[in-house]
Amino acid sequence: MNVFAVPGLPEVRPGDDLAALVEARADLRDDDVLLVASTVVSKAEGRRADLEEFPAGPRAKELAERLEAISGEQKDPRFAQAVLEESTEIIMEAPFLLTATKFGHVGVNAGIDRSNVGDGGADLLLLPERPSESADRIRENLESDPAVVVTDTSGRPFRHGQRGVAIGWSGIPASRDWRGETDRDGHELEVTVEAVVDELAAAANLVTGEGDDGLPVAVVRDWEFGNHEGSDNLYRDVDGDFVRQALRGWEFARD
Amino acid sequence: MNVFAVPGLPEVRPGDDLAALVEARADLRDDDVLLVASTVVSKAEGRRADLEEFPAGPRAKELAERLEAISGEQKDPRFAQAVLEESTEIIMEAPFLLTATKFGHVGVNAGIDRSNVGDGGADLLLLPERPSESADRIRENLESDPAVVVTDTSGRPFRHGQRGVAIGWSGIPASRDWRGETDRDGHELEVTVEAVVDELAAAANLVTGEGDDGLPVAVVRDWEFGNHEGSDNLYRDVDGDFVRQALRGWEFARD
């Protein structure tokens, strides 16, 4: 399996054809996986926004005041309003906003980015509205037919640090299913579902970087999904997500 | 970056020299990262165990009874005893046991494996006692000097499916730190700490597989950590882990 960043992508602007920008810089193959950072997908889709587009309602003011009291830093209630508008549920409101986005991803601040916005005066970069549809569109516009994964980076419980995750995918199932398969001693496997799109996103993040030389597009080549059942059910329902249930009932308190 | 599985590893037995087994099958380089599944590390370290080594105390019996009532399946209290003995904290006791291992990793059943145990009649495969020390030892026994990462697979909140994670590492920091670095527009980066050992483990898991043809060792070649600060602080303290705090106070209840 080979993983490499696509070099030389220009600053992406609203309406840009990402497929064309990538194909001008990489010879893609039908069995590649193309991994595109959500930041450039959002930029191409015009998902930049200004704080003034989000006049804060009472709930946003309340959230911002609480975060301000906890952090001792000024918090803009318009940012909290933007998070509310991008979310279907606030899972945790302190010491930071953890929410479920409309498409199912759980992330801090609904994944709204205040860095990497680029020129143009916009303050915020929202996640793509429906990242799997974004992946479909990129794929349709390519001459070749690789799988396409839209990636983000995200923290997690129990472990420090962020790692790449998938938030949208096309031309590949999200997971491969080893259920009913056995190890070489004939024991049924305990690991049953492998979230391959997340593992591909993690691999891509190792080569794309974040900084000055940030390269937002990577290719995974010579990797095979293999002969397994696939599933697109990546985001847990609340019913089966005990952590989400526990966080709903939990209240942050400072010592 | 190139990722490949090391082929042809035999069934690993207690006392086997993993370094020699790997070097007989792969030309390792000093700038490689060698990823070794915890299953084979445990086997080499004699971490197979029999259920009868864990006579169940009252707490284990109580845990097993509760899990039995919830699942409708028979649960062996000796297994719960083994989980207790491998853990420093039971974070969640129903509908499954989520615990913190002695070395800091949070996982279901303290990472004890009942598949993949191989011949020899043992029922259980415990995780290595101190996986970063295991990684040190493998590295010391190699002729070459790659980084070594001991991997496992693990589920996670919010998202279905498992993915590769690191539980021990040597010759590489767990994370690279982008703090204070800026993107190409001069904005300070929001992503500050990248858990590279977990991303490397995820990449390895894409090529090693789980089943009949499971290949427990992989190599990542031509990848650079780059010019960043590093950190070995991968496991969160309870103080900064809000999910762990929330789960402690949460009680599973069936509808």
TrEMBL record, chains A, B:
Top EC group: ligase
Keyword Metal-binding included in the entry's annotation: yes
Keyword Magnesium: yes
Binding residues for a divalent metal cation 2: T153, E210
GO function term, MF aspect, one: coenzyme F420-1:gamma-L-glutamate ligase activity
SUPFAM superfamilies reported for this sequence: CofE-like (SSF144010)
Keywords, alphabetical: GTP-binding, Ligase, Magnesium, Manganese, Metal-binding, Nucleotide-binding, Potassium
Domain Coenzyme F420:L-glutamate ligase-like intervals: 9-222
Cofactors, names only: K(+); Mg(2+); Mn(2+)
Pathway: Cofactor biosynthesis; coenzyme F420 biosynthesis
Catalyzed reactions: oxidized coenzyme F420-0 + GTP + L-glutamate = oxidized coenzyme F420-1 + GDP + phosphate + H(+); oxidized coenzyme F420-1 + GTP + L-glutamate = oxidized coenzyme F420-2 + GDP + phosphate + H(+)
Domain of life the protein comes from: Archaea
Any Pfam family the entry gives: F420_ligase
EC number: 6.3.2.31, 6.3.2.34
PANTHER family in UniProt: COENZYME F420:L-GLUTAMATE LIGASE (PTHR47917:SF1), PTHR47917
Subunit details: Homodimer.
Family: Belongs to the CofE family.
Functional description taken from the UniProt entry: Catalyzes the GTP-dependent successive addition of two or more gamma-linked L-glutamates to the L-lactyl phosphodiester of 7,8-didemethyl-8-hydroxy-5-deazariboflavin (F420-0) to form coenzyme F420-0-glutamyl-glutamate (F420-2) or polyglutamated F420 derivatives.
Protein name: Coenzyme F420:L-glutamate ligase
Source species: Halorussus limi
